[in-house]
Amino acid sequence: MDSRLYFTITLVVLAWLSASTCNATNHTNGTNVTTTAAAPTPTLIASTTVAPALVYNDTVSALEANLTNDGCGTVRLCAGQPSDCNPANSACTLLGAKAKGGNVFEFLLAGESEGYLGAVVSFDAALGGNDTTYICFNDNGQIKFTGASLENNVLTRKTVNANNVRGKITGKKMQCIFDATVDSSTARAARAPDAALGVVSGTYNSSSGSFGAPTTLIKTDPINLSNPNQTVTNNAATTASPDVTMTT
């Protein structure tokens, strides 16, 4: 066979084989290509779940160290009489509230009383409209704790959402600290609403278990309890009230 003819036939065969291979490859790729759909973006839904209220427990554990005004204005909202009250080294009255999450707060209450001190939380500008009151009182030299409502200058015992109470009495100096769930009587929110704070004081009769009428030592305007860095003014005009017996 002529060498030129043989070379031509060889080129034709190679060209045919190349075309067949290319077509096979294209066919294979066309049948095997898979398109993956993008996964849907998840929708984030904000949780509106409110933590359950604290369970009432009036057991008082020993408070080892004196309470101070450390943290007031930075991590704790404080109202004092006088305003720079430090109960660790002076005879004064101090109420503090420290946010612990949601509508749970750690309350600090210190002052001088031979009977009781009460921390009042009011959801209006006035104290005494069925307002929740947390009372630390001197029962024959032992500090005890109870919840109450303050209505028309009368304290009536009630169960409150508070626990983890620690306290001590030294002479007339009374100090206690406790956790409490703060919520309005109309609706609970994920955050405690603004509230006015107050401190009341009075006598306690350990024989009858009765409390004298409250004298207001501290009274604030409604404030955001979760914001420690704000100016708090004491609007109380400290005057004695006529004796009233606490009902049970």
TrEMBL record:
A GO BP entry: regulation of postsynaptic membrane neurotransmitter receptor levels
Membrane-crossing residue ranges in chain numbering: none
InterPro entries: FRRS1L
Region forming the signal peptide: 1-24
Record keywords, A-Z: Signal
Keyword Lipid metabolism attributed: no
PANTHER family assigned: DOMON DOMAIN-CONTAINING PROTEIN FRRS1L
Protein name as catalogued: Ferric-chelate reductase 1a
Source species: Tetraodon nigroviridis (Spotted green pufferfish)
